[in-house]
Amino acid sequence: MITKKLIDQIEGEASVYFDLKDEKVDYASIAFPHFIGIENILEGKSVLDALVITPRVCGICGHAHLMACVRAIESAYKNANLPVTLSKKAEDIREFTLILEIIQNHFKWLYMTIIPQISKLSGSYQDQHPLKGAFAASLATKALAIFSGQWPHASYMIPGGITCDPTHVERLQALSHVEELITFFEKECAGIDIDSLLSFRSCKEIDALQSDIGDLEKNLALSKMHLKGFSHDNFLVLGKHDFSTQAKLKQMRVSNVDTRYIELDDAYSPDEKSYAKNATYNGMFYEVGPLSRLISSNYPLIKNMHRRFKDSTYTRVMARVFEIAVLLKQARTLVENLTLDEASFFAPSKIENLSSTGIGVVEAPRGSLIHKVIIQEGVIKKYEIITPTQWNLGSSPKNRLSPSQQAMQGQSVDDALFIFRSFDVCSVCTTH
Amino acid sequence: MIMNNPSQKISIMRSKLELKPRLLWLQGLTCNANAHSFFNLPNLEQLLNKFEILYHPSLGTEYSFEKISECDMVCDVLIFEGTFDPLLKRNNILMLNILTHYAHNAKHIIGLGSCASFGGMFKASSPQRNTGLIFNESLKEGPLLHLEEKVINLSGCPIHPQWLGFTLNMIVQNRPIAVDELHRPLELYSHLAHHGCTRNEYFEWKVDSKGFGLKEGCLFYGQGCRAPMTHSSCNKILWNEVSSKTRNGTPCFGCTEPDFPRTDLFSTKTNMSIPADVPLGVSKRSYLTMVGMAKTFSIKRLEGKLIDYKKTD
Ligand code: SF4
Ligand code: SF4
What we know:
The complex is a heterodimer of chains A (432) and B (313). Chain A is an alpha+beta fold. In chain A, 44% of the residues lie in helices and 18% in strands.
């Protein structure tokens, strides 16, 4: 018998269809019923318009789309042997705003999704403060908007740099918002200062915390999430940033990545029309996102968790929470050290003369995000977007399960639904 | 007599006050950015506490969407975010049916964002059928046209959190909200995005920006800034309380207007070197006379760099 569950209170809407055997999931398929068609909308437009259109794929990670888009256009210039110069200042500011968008995403996911759901599942009634997530996110986006003008939906990254030209007044204002956010995180979320948290080596240290994160850890353990939600133990990080290391890890064997091996195929969803596509590398599913990033960057705490509990839901959830601390520290360092004496923008050659192809890869909140573009005389011939959720939330037949399908195997429906949400579901990105 | 007992009166008033308006947040085809923008509102909690929230797409609320889609309750304030697609289903039920049911009973309907107001960015998803609630771009056409007197449009891609905050607070206080011909609150949309931009002086003296990435110069002539033709308060009520696109050197794309998204957004359309569009309500002749005059002056302070870091750092 197939049981349908509508997943709401995520970004958009999804359905999971469970085929149960002895009340455990024997097979789960995933459907994303809505479709926007951004790629079609882009065709025939001036390629710079993509900087305005692609952020609108997603209200929570539009900034990552902006960065993937600008990187794709810049790579097209380079592929046509036309130089693109970026100042370190422009690169640092881009990186800073991207990081803050990831931070706001994780805070919302923590307080609006994961804590309410684990509290229900574990029956422990952990205090719920969804608006704490909104408050923290608003501080992060304030620091971000100082450089980007606004969040959501800024278009301040352009080929050759950024449109803003900040002074130290803005830099210090951004720093003070980041510091306020760090204090909020330490007091209201972690219950410990950020440097101590980052030096943790074992789960016991988190378990001892009297805080939202400590409670979350205890409830995950109470719900036996360290023994559930195992996926393929394959991780992929494609974006190039200071806060993560590009790599492909197959059962912890590390190798280099090459985006030429990425493929897309239609998702398999026998019970409902789905507009989703599956992303694979060399024909295999890989998990992308915070857990992959932290494992590839060798954080001792996460490595230790992984050694003990593999890629269980416990490890996956705690990695996402831990990444907030990693990124907050990185954001502070970036804005503290930002130098302003370089130009924000070096004009590349005229876009109307550009005929080329380009690819832009970044790490978005949910993992690696790819934009590919074919340009003819400055006009988009073809645009393709591969989102992180197409890796994690793919839907395939039983002999070839996606990371989230695999993680739900053998679990009760309630557990499986929690496990599904641990991947930070976003339907708007999945089907764009 | 009951009516003569003052304490009785007070308790009647209290219980009336406690009847909070019921708020429902529905979505058409959307990127959820209006919901996320709204989360940036300072004092969000105080505002939300003034409502009984039946359903919101990302906050844990009283009812699940499955329950809402059964359409056996009513709401007072209906927020609709996203383009209206007549074929869209949620939970396998036509959105049109859910929308019509709640809209019929609601006292106020808010079209949230340019998609719900005019079709917006996602109209292009199915241009033949997608519309806003009562407008298809600027044509009067949409599923709630028969209820248009209840509809308030908050255009913008996305909305500024304070615009929705303002509208909801006015509703709570039972104050009338005056709107323009596109059903947008006058108090939010009678300004132009240009008002309050830090580059205003450059606009006045016709000092064009020499390119992107500069504090100096106006983006109207070269970089496609639509702010003098765009109704919105982006430079009056700052974004995220700190800035705006134009302050940060990004042109205004005119996202609050029915023709958003236009094309070639980073350049200004010109005919024989004259901008195709001139500031709202200004005749081309007056504009050109003004430009001609301003261009005869050369003002050193406006031509040069405001700060030279090479000298100061
Ligand atoms: S940049 Fe735009 S908003 Fe600013 S002064 Fe010029 S025209 Fe006005
Ligand atoms: S400045 Fe213009 S484009 Fe930007 S949000 Fe405001 S109205 Fe929209």
